[in-house]
Design a protein that fits this description.
Bound molecules: N-(5'-phosphopyridoxyl)-D-alanine
Largest sheet: 10 strands, mixed
Number of helices: 7
Low-confidence stretches: none
Order of helices and strands: EEHEEHHEEEHEEEEHEEHEEEH
Number of strands: 16
Structural class: alpha+beta
CATH class of the largest domain: Alpha Beta
Oligomer: single chain
Helix content: 25-40%
Mean pLDDT: 95
Distance between the termini: 36 Å
Length: 295
């Protein structure tokens, strides 16, 4: 069982790790995070996650305390020590512990930590009941491209969805479906996939990026534009994407069935290709080409 954490260069038992009361992550949500999937003891798209971490940190005017190559080495050395082969690495970077003040500290400080979490085995394409999504107004800030630890709007939305018997909340910003509380979203309409562009209201999901790559190879066109809620309701198919859930099919949008509540052919095709991509990338000694267009 995993109980280790890497924190500012030290490896400790998680119960021995201590964060200062004046950590700016704790007091101001002044920090960013990443979630990196591990299969068979190997990371999937780690480089892309660490590049996004750099962009997120930059977005809050914070520099990574070490180059990403070194960070990647630290992670690669740490994970086998946990004994975990299936799960995800949670990584968090904050502006560190300094006397409480809204102003940035004069001298750079940080808290960087990561540890592993277990996950159940991924669902096979078409497996499971299909997700039920609850649309809710997008009340988040306009820098959703930053993977900020300030997630209270997402947490409230997710819990509202669950309280009403749904699996996930989806944000709607003036008629446009932006993303889920914890995922990106794609709708299939007339053979095309539609998904909102990344930016103010949408995180540049790494799984989303893999889906773009796979769809191009499969010849499935993607229309990157705001998806209107009235289009979402009559979509032929719908999926959500995230590191922890890969590509998950949607059965219901509020009180309406999507694709008669069944997993559709485009979803099956995409998820099969995604599973294959994971298997290839996480086999022993696999060398993986970076995703084209990763930004
Ligand atoms: N969340 N949008 C939001 C708001 C998210 O929180 C996530 C992922 C995504 C998908 O990004 P990616 O494909 O890179 O995982 C999109 C993670 C898994 C989490 O917070 O646990």
């Amino acid at each position: 069982m995993n109980d280790l954490i890497w924190i500012n260069g030290e490896i400790l038992h998680i119960s021995d790790a201590r964060i200062g009361v004046e950590d700016r992550g704790f007091q101001f949500a002044d920090g960013v995070y990443e979630v990196v999937r591990f299969y068979n003891g190997k990371s999937f798209t780690m480089r892309e996650h660490l590049e996004r971490l750099t962009r997120s940190a930059d977005g809050i005017k914070l520099a990574l305390p070490m180059p990403i190559e070194q960070l990647q080495d630290e992670i690669v050395q740490f994970v086998p020590r946990t004994g975990m082969r299936e799960g995800y690495l949670y990584l968090q970077l904050t502006r560190g512990v300094v006397e409480r003040n809204h102003r940035f500290p004069k001298h750079a400080s940080h808290t960087l930590l990561f540890y592993m979490h277990e996950l159940p085995p991924p669902l096979e394409p078409g497996e499971g009941e299909g997700l039920k999504l609850l649309p809710l107004p997008d009340e988040r800030w306009k820098r959703c491209w930053i993977k900020s630890i300030g997630l209270i709007a997402n947490v409230l939305a997710k819990n509202e969805a669950i309280a009403h018997g749904f699996d996930e909340a989806v944000f709607v910003d003036r008629e446009a479906v932006t993303e889920g509380a914890t995922c990106n979203i794609f709708a299939a309409l007339g053979g095309k996939l539609v998904t909102h562009p990344v930016g103010a209201k949408v995180l540049s999901g790494i799984t989303r990026m893999v889906v773009f790559d796979i769809a191009a190879k499969l010849g499935v066109p993607i229309d990157e534009r705001p998806l209107r809620e009235e289009e979402a309701v009559r979509a032929d198919e719908m999926v959500i994407t995230s590191t922890t859930r890969e590509i998950a099919w949607v059965a219901r949008w509020n009180d309406r069935y999507i694709g008669q509540g069944k997993c559709g052919p485009i979803t099956m095709k995409l998820h099969r290709a995604y599973r294959e991509r994971v298997r290839t990338a996480t086999r022993s000694h696999a060398r993986v080409a970076p995703i084209v267009g990763a930004a």
